[in-house]
Write a structure and sequence with these properties.
This protein is of the alpha+beta class. It contains five helices and twelve strands. It has a four-stranded antiparallel β-sheet. Strands 3-8-4-6 form a four-stranded antiparallel β-sheet, with helices on one face. It is flat, with a radius of gyration of 24 Å. The chain starts with a strand and ends with a helix.
């Protein structure tokens, strides 16, 4: 049986995509989810040298904040340290140097950080890192490396979730159709004359709250054998890059297992 994917919604401005996974099961679908969370590498600040930090955030909190600030990642230009030819010693292929110098009163934003690679900068320019008062200043040197979510959450590229596809049916006349429409939090129902109908484009937004079923016995809510997979990227990689990378890594693991067998 061949697994099929059917795109539901592609919200590029929100770095989010949803698609239907057909002819699959929980094991395979969850494997893709885990590959994204644990294996897909991204850049994140790993080492921090603080020459001066006059901000309200003490050094450890500042380091935590910088580590969790997402960095645009180019997987073709960087390698995991353990796979780099320098054997982890540190080189331009496995490390990215970034600096931050600020002395102006007010918020210090991510866009003020200077990166050795102009293609790999913090994703959100206006993300505030800290705040300086008059005569306070900062002087930092950061080293970002490729890492994986299985080692630390700062390297997770996004939020992947999946759930069963809902199947909603109106099997007869509904006593109070207007009440059902007004009580559905996702706006899945609409009135057509005096009849209640399901808006097909909204069905995938159903959160399985069961309110419609409780309101009228002629409404049924079941689950199909397919899955709705939703991926929201934090911005280091786009959704397509994340999915392709997760698939390639899964193939590598399967091939490695075949060799061991």
């Amino acid at each position: 049986m061949t697994i099929k994917l059917e795109k539901i919604k592609d919200e590029r401005k929100k770095n989010k995509i949803s698609f239907l996974v057909k002819n699959s099961d929980e094991v395979f679908t969850n494997t893709i989810r885990r590959m994204i969370v644990e294996e897909v590498p991204t850049l994140a600040v790993e080492d921090l040298e603080i020459k001066d930090n006059g901000s309200a955030l003490y050094d450890e909190m500042l380091g935590l904040r910088l580590g969790l600030t997402p960095i645009k990642t180019d997987l073709k230009s960087y390698e995991l340290k353990e796979k780099c030819k320098c054997a982890g010693a540190g080189c331009a292929k496995c490390e990215l140097k970034m600096t931050l110098k600020a002395s102006k009163k007010g918020y210090v934003y991510a866009e003020e950080v200077q990166s050795a690679d102009p293609e790999c900068i913090f994703v959100y320019p206006k993300m505030p890192l800290t705040k300086l008062l008059s005569k306070q200043k900062m002087d930092l040197t950061m080293t970002a490396i490729l890492g994986q979510g299985k080692n630390h959450a700062k390297w997770i590229p996004g939020l992947p979730i999946y759930r069963r596809e809902p199947v909603i049916k109106v099997n007869g006349k509904v006593a109070d159709a207007q009440k059902v429409v007004s009580h559905c939090p996702q706006g899945i129902f609409a009135l057509k004359g005096n009849s209640l109908e399901v808006i097909k484009d909204k069905v995938y937004d159903c959160n399985d709250c069961q309110q419609c079923v409780d309101l009228d016995k002629n409404i049924s809510l079941e689950e199909s054998g397919d899955f709705i997979f939703t991926l929201e990227s934090w911005g280091q990689l786009n959704c397509k890059e994340i999915l392709i990378q997760s698939a390639e890594l899964l193939i590598e693991k399967v091939e490695e297992m075949e060799k061991l067998i």
